[in-house]
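Hey,
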Amino acid sequence: MSSFQLNLNPLKEPLGFIKVLEWIASIFAFATCGGFKGKTEILVSCSKGSENKTITATFDYPFRLNQASFQAPPGVNVCNVSWEKQVLIGDYSSSAQFYVTFAVFVFLYCIVALLLYVGYTNLYRDNRKLPMADFVVTLVATFLWLVSTSAWAKALTDIKVATGHSIVQELAPCKTQEVMCYFGSVTGMGSLNVSVIFGFLNLILWGGNAWFVYKETSLHSPSNTSASHSQGGIPPPAGI
């Protein structure tokens, strides 16, 4: 195996430059989803004219809403109801964890790929197996970005419904005549919307980069023309 030799020329070409963009986009993808914390508030009154009390259910990644129970203010008995037994509806952890875990793996792969591009340029250029492996991983990653982002986007839509106005209709105490419930508020989910946007952005980046990775493989360039690449970097194969 050739020794490490720093060569930043690949970063000036689409193959390396897009890989840097993929690395950055993957960070935003898992950070905006995995770092979210929110809460849903409901106003409760025990009779007409009585003061409203606020009960709150907090939720965060990985969005197991069926484990997020409502809590009354400390030391306050709200309508003689054990609100801690009342929970939100739904478990969206599978979609969220799949999305975040995949984004983390992409982040790590981009680091390895960039290290190979800028540190072992000659090895990547002269070894037919490495570009082919890179191409296969790129195709698989493109498909998984489509699957994971679509699943997460659907889950996010359901999360918004489950934590919104409809929750009042699902709580058993709120269906009785003695307790009147009103939807209060829910934490804005702008960062989760951003995570979906970055998921589809990653899909575009990886799909577009597949062409530039393909040009480095023996499928596009059957003969290894390493002698013509003495200037460094990872130049495009002949004929492009």
